[in-house]
Design brief:
The structure holds two protein chains of two kinds. Chain A is an alpha/beta fold. Chain A is built from six helices and five strands, in the order βααβαβαβαβα. Chain B has four domains: about 1-135, Beta-Lactamase; about 155-255, 2-Layer Sandwich (Beta-Lactamase); about 260-345, Helix Hairpins, CATH 1.10.287; about 350-485, Heat Shock Protein 90.
């Protein structure tokens, strides 16, 4: 089963995500998980049974997390994840250094939490659609 | 008889030669018959004493020209010689010569005695030593002045031999190092009074500057007090040369700079503290504004959800409030973005390069979109400027954006210029009053209601100019446009 996993500590931001997926109907197509810290996410990944069938895993990782940062989490997931693990950095920062750091850590994409809901919605849906429905994995 | 005649002729010859010789030498000669008290003197002697050649020498008139105390001394010296106590009659004395004081040195000796051993004839020579006496006097005064200088100097003065062993030192120096008496310092070496790790440097200064050049540039070092504490000083030293040009000693001028050093340290500490505080503040502004983004975005989003889901359940007034919440949050978000941008600007690195102004303006115009007609006039004295390209671009971008923002005409005319290190952007916009010019650089101050903007553009300009150690100022008049000038402290 293909999964969309959010690592996001901010409730309001996650409400926005839920609303976007609900309104677009994506919520019905995919299992959406949420962790509120990097540590929770790592624990989950490490405890996954080896038997779990490999599906698409699309991670959205907020860079501004309590304790372990999003950049660090991307680095860890790149190591423990499998080849079809897609890591998308999510941040309110448009600063070049934040973007560069994310790609260096192993992110596949970087999207901005736009302050305008509609624009954020479009970015999130386009990204989700691309990785879940357009891109192929082998 | 004939022999006698011959003899007397020869004698006369000898006498003449003798007189010629006497008159040729620069000293006066006298011959004193002690029994008759008649004194015959050479022409030179009369000349020295300002007497005409034909005038007879007279003891009394000579004695009158000598001050009594000196006369007494001369007579005493004479008496001692006549008594056989000293081998020579010797005296130095001042005398009035035609109204002027001159110094004479006289040396004489008894040459004939009577059968009872009483001296009857004394012969002597006299030398005018006025010049020597004057030099002695001057020397003495120089010495006096030097000791006055040493005693009164705020700075320490130390005279050493070429190995820096102290020969003389003034009170200031002994006080500086906590010695009670300057005598305690004599024969000590300056090295003894210097921390060991500075010996090498002192030796280098001595060998490379003082001895070959004759002096050294003022330099800083430390001396040790008698308690072993360091005193920071600045030192200037000169080689003192004898008249053969050989270095006979070294004069050092030493200034206690503890107070200055302490002040320097205080300033240094204060600056470091200020820098740290500024960095902290910058960090704070950055972190705070970053964190503020999240809740303001949350308000915007939820206001939108509220509107989308519940607007139909509210009346017009309620709906309007939701719209206001959203636009207020949006404005807040804009301010936070500006603050972030501003705080990032302050931490930027400046990499200077030669910037082609024309191509920079071309690029700027390509990136500028405007619904108004833009007319750019370029007025460059020289084609390039040495500065950080990104900064100059951003400065001009902000100023151009302001020029367009604060314009009421359809066509916006802007002059971008550079002359003698000053750059400017001049517009034909609405201009502003003198008071507004003063307020223009206050953060988030929007001076006009016209147009949009967070009022941060000029602050960013100012920061970028300041990062170049330059200056920015505004000249403007209401209705007549605005000129913003800036310099980028180009030192090439």
């Amino acid at each position: 089963m293909n999964k969309i996993i959010f690592v996001e500590d901010n409730d309001i931001d996650f409400w926005s995500v839920e609303r976007i997926y609900n309104k677009s109907g994506m919520a019905k197509k995919y299992n959406i998980y949420r962790f509120t810290s990097a540590e929770e996410c790592i624990e989950y990944m490490e405890n996954l049974s080896v038997n779990t069938p490999i599906g698409k895993e699309l991670f959205f990782i907020d860079l501004n997390l309590p304790s372990m940062s999003g950049h660090k989490l991307i680095e860890r997931l790149r190591k423990i994840g499998n080849a079809s693990t897609i890591l998308v950095a999510l941040s309110s920062s448009t600063h070049n250094t934040d973007i560069e750091k994310s790609y260096q850590a192993g992110a596949n994409a970087y999207i901005v939490k736009h302050e305008k809901y509609d624009e954020f919605a479009e970015a999130l849906l386009t990204t989700t659609k691309f990785w879940m429905e357009v891109a192929l994995y082998a | 008889m004939a022999v006698d005649v011959t003899d007397s002729v020869e004698l006369e010859e000898v006498q003449k030669k003798y007189e010629l010789a006497i008159n040729a030498i620069n000293d006066g000669v006298y011959d004193w018959d002690l029994t008759s008290d008649e004194i015959s003197v050479s022409g030179k002697m009369k000349q020295m004493h300002g007497l005409p050649d034909q005038q007879q020498w007279d003891y009394q008139s000579w004695a009158q020209r000598v001050e009594p105390e000196h006369l007494a001394k001369i007579e005493q010296a004479l008496q001692q010689h006549l008594n056989g106590e000293v081998a020579f009659f010797y005296a130095e004395y001042p005398i009035d010569v035609v109204g002027k004081k001159r110094w004479m040195l006289t040396r004489g000796r008894v040459v004939e005695w009577d059968d009872f051993g009483k001296p009857i004839r004394l012969v002597g020579i006299e030398t005018d030593i006025t010049n020597r006496k004057q030099i002695e006097e001057e020397l003495w005064l120089v010495g006096q002045k030097l000791s006055a200088l040493q005693a009164s100097a705020v700075d320490a003065l130390v005279y050493t031999d070429v190995d820096l062993t102290i020969l003389e030192a003034n009170k200031t120096f002994s006080n500086m190092l906590g010695y009670e008496d300057t005598a305690q310092l004599l024969t000590k070496s300056l090295f003894e009074l210097t921390p060991v790790n500075q010996h090498g440097f002192d030796k280098k200064i001595l060998a490379e500057q003082i001895l070959p050049e004759g002096f050294c540039q003022e330099y800083e070092k430390s001396f040790l007090t008698n308690q072993g504490q360091k005193v920071p000083v600045s030192v200037c030293a000169w080689a003192v040369k004898d008249n053969a040009g050989e270095v006979s000693g070294i004069m050092c001028l030493i200034r206690d700079i503890s107070a200055r050093k302490q002040a320097e340290q205080t300033i240094h500490d204060a600056l470091a503290e200020l820098k740290r505080k500024n960095e902290e503040l910058d960090q704070f502004v950055y972190a705070a504004s970053h964190d503020l983004k999240e809740p303001s975005r949350g308000i915007m989003h939820i206001a939108q959800f509220l509107y989308e889901d519940y607007a139909t359940k509210l009346d017009e007034g309620g709906q309007k409030y939701i719209v206001h919440i959203r636009s207020a949050a949006e404005r807040m978000f804009g301010l936070i973005e500006s603050l972030l941008k501003f705080s990032r600007t302050g931490r930027r690195e400046i990499n200077r390069e030669h910037i082609e102004l024309n191509s920079l303006v071309d690029e700027l115009l390509q990136q500028t979109s405007s619904h108004k007609k833009l007319q750019i006039k370029r007025n460059f004295d020289s084609a390039t400027v040495f500065a950080d390209r990104l900064s100059v671009f951003e400065i001009l971008q902000n100023l151009l954006s302001n020029a367009m923002k604060y314009s009421r005409t359809e066509t916006v005319e802007v002059e971008i210029g550079q002359s003698g290190g000053t750059l400017w952007v001049k517009d034909n916009g609405i201009g502003m009053s003198k008071e507004s010019c003063d307020l223009a650089f206050v953060i988030f101050k929007r001076l006009n209601k016209v147009g949009e903007g967070e009022g941060i553009g000029l602050n960013i300009v100012k920061r970028l100019v300041e990062l170049h150690e330059g200056r920015v100022w505004i000249e403007s008049e209401e209705g007549l446009g605005t000129q913003v000038y800036f310099t980028l402290n180009v030192q090439e």
